[in-house]
Amino acid sequence: MAQSYVQVTTTTDSRAEAAELAESAVAERFAACAQLVGPIASTYWWEGEIESAEEWMVLFKTTVDRFDELATLITDVHSYDTPEIIATPVVAGSLDYLAWIAEQTEGDEPGEDPDEV
């Protein structure tokens, strides 16, 4: 397992924005898969106050090599001033699934089939 893998998490205040982030990341091949979870209840400090909000979580499956591009996409598309972008290393996983992530994130062009590269 020479490739390094991460699960990247972000949250947003609408299902529509979460779906847009997921679709964009997968279309650009910055992530092999994106899962939407929600709604979830979030409590956090913001501008000196404790806030509570309903949010949607997006979990992206990708490689360390694609992280910077994915983080840039999230920052550019996201409506929050400071979006959550947290990469959690994948310590172990199904070898077939990890190989699939690597294959799906290899393409340089949106929609490019990595098997034809």
TrEMBL record:
InterPro entries: Ion_tolerance_CutA, N-reg_PII-like_a/b, N-reg_PII/ATP_PRibTrfase_C
Gene3D superfamilies: 3.30.70.120
Transmembrane segments: none
Highest taxon listed in the record's lineage: Bacteria
SUPFAM superfamilies named among the record's database cross-references: GlnB-like (SSF54913)
Record family assignment: Belongs to the CutA family.
Protein name: Divalent-cation tolerance protein CutA
Source species of the chain: Actinomadura sediminis
Lineage summary: Bacteria, Bacillati, Actinomycetota, Actinomycetes, Streptosporangiales
